[in-house]
Design brief:
By secondary structure, the chain is an alpha/beta fold. It has 11 helices and 8 strands.
């Protein structure tokens, strides 16, 4: 489906005003969400430019509780800003269900189904995991298995349990042919060891945080590299080098919203419209236009996810 994008600045201004009004009339006992929405409107309003039309957010969490007060308004708003595709990530059993419902509701939203490493203690056995994931992955708008992987930042779940869950899901990806979305936090060595074992699986390292050498090996293995707001952080050390060397056909962009808002909005609730900052940083590092980055990452998202553009689902 070809998604239209209005060029009428007054219409976009009216929409932002409407959303701000809804924030002001939000549930009185939940003023924090109302304030958060108004901040988002303010942050986004200045970034509505036609040159940013066509952004594809490859990794978002609009099912997160931080969007409970204005979820539908925000998804509609970022679309009005020119975001033409979103993959909402299922990373728990509950989030898979809500992610599926969002994809069912919005023609430009797709979803993934997988279990985050934090679920390793509560996921059940392999038979249960496989049954649930395969059920969700059979949906026509389920475009990937994830997010899955390893996270050693905290003491629990134990690394051995995380690795078992990771391998279970890599096996399911191998069986189903779905690409994987991999979470790797403070676990580069073990993550790469498992990736190497499943060479037939295609995947992306979301919000990549590794070295140029790791990125090169992943690319040689057929993987994609996804850049989030972290690329814009002043303390991003090796990431700019990675962003400069990744081939045109292997890069994606993402928000990981509501987390990882880019500089200069760091610390605020993130949303897909703020990907303009990531696009601009990538364009600067690669010496090309913002429009070119959007074109390339959009084509890559379509090639990676193999999604079907549908106007509606029954």
């Amino acid at each position: 489906m070809e998604i239209s994008f209005t060029e009428d600045k007054n219409a976009r201004s009216d929409f932002a005003g409407s959303l701000a009004g809804q924030a002001e009339t939000a549930v009185a006992s939940d003023t924090s969400k109302a304030d958060d929405t108004k901040k988002t409107v303010s942050a986004v309003a200045g970034n509505v430019k036609t040159k940013y039309y066509g952004i594809f957010d490859s990794h978002a969490h609009y099912d997160d509780a931080k969007f409970d007060g204005d979820r539908d308004e925000m998804i509609e708003y970022v679309h009005s800003c020119g975001v033409t595709g979103i993959v909402n990530i299922g990373c728990t059993y509950d989030s898979m269900k809500l992610s599926e419902s969002l994809a069912q509701k919005y023609p430009y939203v797709y979803f993934s189904a997988g279990l985050h490493p934090s679920e390793a203690d509560v996921c059940g056995d392999f038979i249960h995991v496989r049954e649930v994931l395969c059920s969700y992955l059979s949906h026509p708008k389920a475009v990937a298995l994830g997010e899955i992987g390893l996270d050693y930042h905290y003491d629990t779940p134990l690394p051995e349990k995380q690795k078992i869950l990771f391998e279970w899901q890599m096996q399911i990806a191998s069986e189903t042919g779905k690409p994987v979305i991999i979470h790797d936090r403070d676990a580069h060595g073990d993550t790469m060891e498992i990736i190497r074992k499943y060479r037939g699986v295609k995947g992306v390292l979301h919000s990549f945080s590794g070295s140029p050498e790791m990125a090169k090996e992943l690319i040689d293995l057929g993987y994609y590299i996804s850049f989030s707001g972290v690329l814009t952080f002043k303390n991003a050390r090796k990431l700019p080098e990675v962003a400069s060397m990744v081939p045109d056909d292997r890069m994606l962009i993402e928000t990981d919203c509501p987390y990882l808002a880019p500089h200069p909005k760091r610390g605020e609730r993130n949303n897909s419209s703020l990907l303009t900052f990531v696009v601009d940083k990538l364009a600067e590092l690669r010496g090309v236009s913002a429009e070119k980055i959007i074109e390339l990452t959009g084509e890559n998202a379509e090639n990676f996810f193999q999604y079907t553009k549908l106007s509606s689902l029954g």
